[in-house]
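User: Structure please.
Assistant: Input sequence and predicted structure:
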Amino acid sequence: MQEQQEVEGAKPNLARDVALYTAARLAMVVAVAALLVLAQVPVLVALAVSVVVVMPLSLVVFGRLRRRVATGMAERAAARRARREELRAQLRGDRTSQAR
């Protein structure tokens, strides 16, 4: 049970970082679309153009946050992979449960 909590707590800020990155990208789309609408561009065209413009721009502007999200996801995946291998080894009878 403690191991499960350690895996889940490996990157406690991952959910927050993902939410921040998503909100930042959406806010940038809205801001670019608003600027285009102010420039007399139709709303649907402004949204389409802003999505296309913001995709590569957000990689540069929010690079640090994107790297934090990617690192957190990689750490979580590695912890889950290690836990899965440990469980498989226990099922095969290769290892006994280790007390921590």
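The radius of gyration is 21 Å.
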